[in-house]
Design goal:
Layout: E1 2-6, E2 9-12, E3 17-24, E4 32-38, E5 45-50, E6 56-58, E7 66-71, E8 76-81, E9 90-98, E10 101-104, E11 108-113
Parallel strand pairs: 2-11
Antiparallel strand pairs: 1-3, 3-8, 4-5, 4-9, 5-6, 7-8, 9-10, 9-11
Amino acid sequence: VQLQASGGGLVQAGGSLRLSCAASGSVSSLAVQGWHRQAPGKQREFVASITSGDNTNYAESVKGRFAISRDNAKKTVYLQMNSLKPEDTAVYYCWYIRYGRTEWGQGTQVTVSS
């Protein structure tokens, strides 16, 4: 499975962005997918995940502002990010887990200016 993340950019605080993660290859709708992020000088951290049954999970720091969704027909997972804050600035990486194996996308930069 290969993952292509897109949708990052520069936005002012309070603004919105929608990230996309398009999967190709032997993609299973039963996989768990999600997003992590890594800010400069910090460790990569969990942001959100979604299961095949559309159960979602979020980091406390993004609850109520971010929403993860998936379109199995398009093999794409989305991360809608609202009310963005400067501390959301990071490279965002999508991932895919199936049969105990994790695949990562290449990352997309999100920069939130104050």
